[in-house]
Design brief:
Blueprint lengths: L2 H28 L15 E6 L2 E3 L2 E5 L3 E6 L8 E2 L14 E5 L6 E6 L11 E7 L3 H11 L6 H4 L7 H29 L13 E2 L5 E15 L2 E8 L8 E3 L4 E8 L8 E3 L23 E7 L5 E6 L4 H4 L5 E6 L9 E2 L2 E2 L10 E10 L3 E4 L10 E3 L4 E8 L5 E5 L4 E6 L2 E8 L2 E4 L4 E7 L4 E7 L6 E2 L2 E2 L3 E6 L1
This protein binds copper (II) ion.
Length: 477
């Protein structure tokens, strides 16, 4: 990241800290009393809401020995009682709450009502079911409390005006907001260098004849995929993705691999023109690189720019998806400068060697899972660009599935496919990236804002807990 981008990120961090504080305040102020998502064993009072002129939910289920917490969401006083019993709450004004102990009721079906004159007749009744407190009914009570994992069936049948629906919706909002807040906190951590990051450019040692020597160590190391979730990843130099290797066309290179993995390995230089015996497919092109052995690949790089990647080939179904993948760049990406593509003029003086370059390595399996650059939202790193800045995103798919990557709003032009310049560059906003493919995309940061950038297979980007997986944000300042 350029110093300018770092500065932008710091400024963003200050703004977002303020936003984060506001979010904390909002969440704290609006959390339902007693907290949400309680376990069945610890089920507290069952919430009931009153308004003009309704009691909701329409059926209130309470385990034997339990109670209800009653909130008046209306504007006039209400109360709640159990028909044909002496049980009745005091009157409560709008905005206030009380509770009503129902522990004297035996299992059965009752009626709740508002005892203020005329309110029952106006519609303020509900069914009250006292269950026998068995496991099944405790589960019902837990469902009433709201749960951590809400799916379609949990929400589709709810009445939008119902208090239970509103509470469940609130839980969904809260967990979504919490994820966004964590993402903002991570943006600050990235700016401060406090997060493990992959794609770090690897500096070569230069031999007397100019040969560039890159040292790699493959090992299983700790890697934080998402906040609080550290996995045993398969890494080159402790990174996911591994180090970003950048060489120039025609360079002589040596790539020295120390294998500290428990199994043999090899490295395939995917998309780079190398001699057969350097292609990294054991046992076809070479012998296995056995545990604790060191092996040196040596070749002269192709004479034209390229965008490749490197990864293990031996048992890739284990090694690659768990982290043994990285980018291998040859030269600057050729740009269609001076052309108009999809109504966007690409400046004649644009030089890809001076542009911000953003790797976007996709994965969806192994211990890394659905991820961008080895991170799952909210631990993904934001991209920061200045208004009117042109920059490059390099997509690589090291996973098992295709991913339609969607960046909101900004003009995006696909300039290379698998490192080869396109005769007809094209503009798009969603790019399908299949396993093994690479695309370089020229982006103009045209409109200030915090723009979502995510896989559009929405289950790769959203979960019952909110945004997750293949999601990040482009910040245009
Ligand atoms: Cu996807």
């Amino acid at each position: 990241m350029s110093p300018a981008s770092q500065t932008m990120l710091s400024r963003f961090a200050v703004v977002t800290s303020i936003f984060a504080l506001i979010m904390v305040g909002v969440v704290a102020a609006t959390r339902p009393e007693g907290g949400g998502g309680g376990s069945a064993a610890a089920a507290g009072p069952v919430p009931v809401a009153l308004s003009e002129f309704e009691i909701s939910p329409g059926t209130v289920t309470v385990p034997k020995g339990g109670s209800i917490s009653v909130t008046n969401n209306g504007s006039v006083a209400h109360n709640v009682g159990v028909t044909d019993t002496a049980l009745k709450s005091p009157d409560i004004n709008g905005g206030e709450s009380t509770s009503l102990d129902l522990s004297t009721l035996e299992p059965g079906t009752y009626e709740l009502y508002c005892a203020i004159s005329g309110h029952k007749e106006a519609g303020m009744t509900a069914t009250l079911i006292i269950t026998d407190g068995s496991a099944g009914s405790a589960e019902d009570a837990a469902a009433t409390e709201g749960t951590e994992h809400l799916g379609h069936d949990d929400v589709a049948t709810l009445d939008p005006s119902d208090a239970q629906a509103q509470r469940i919706n609130k839980e969904m909002e809260d967990s979504m907001s919490a994820g966004v807040q964590t993402f903002l906190e991570y943006a600050e951590k990235y700016a401060n260098g406090e997060v493990q990051v992959g794609n770090q450019k690897l500096e070569p040692e230069i031999e007397a004849d100019g040969t560039k020597v890159f040292n790699l160590t493959a090992a299983i190391t700790d890697w934080e995929v998402s906040p609080g979730k550290t996995v045993k990843a398969w890494t080159y130099n402790g990174q996911v993705p591994g180090p970003w290797i950048r060489v120039e066309p025609g360079d002589k290179v040596k790539l020295v691999l120390k294998n500290n993995l428990p199994i043999s390995t090899d490295i395939h230089w995917h998309g780079i023109d190398v001699p057969f015996e350097q292609d990294g497919v054991a046992p076809i092109t070479q012998d296995y690189i056995r545990p604790l052995d060191t092996y040196t690949y040596e070749f002269t790089v192709q004479n034209h720019p390229g965008m490749g990647m490197y990864h293990a080939h031996f048992h890739g179904q284990i090694a690659i998806v768990n982290g043994l993948f990285a980018m291998f760049q040859v030269g600057d990406v050729p740009l269609p400068t001076g052309r108009t593509v999809g109504n966007v003029e690409i400046p004649a003086d644009l030089n890809s060697g001076t542009l911000q370059e953003v790797p976007m390595v996709l994965n969806d399996a192994g211990v890394i899972g659905l991820s961008l650059n080895g991170k799952s939202f909210p631990a993904t790193q934001p991209i920061v660009a200045k208004k009117d800045e042109w920059f490059l995103i390099h997509f690589f798919n090291e996973g098992l599935q295709g991913h339609p990557m969607h960046l909101h709003r900004q003009p995006q032009i696909v300039v290379t496919k698998d490192g080869f310049p396109l005769d007809a560059p094209y503009r798009m906003d969603t790019l399908w990236v299949s396993p093994g493919e690479r695309y370089s995309v020229l982006v103009k940061a045209e409109d200030p804002g915090k723009w979502a950038f995510h896989c559009h297979i929405v289950s790769h980007a959203e979960s019952p807990e909110g945004l997750f997986g293949m999601v990040t944000v482009l910040i245009v300042e």
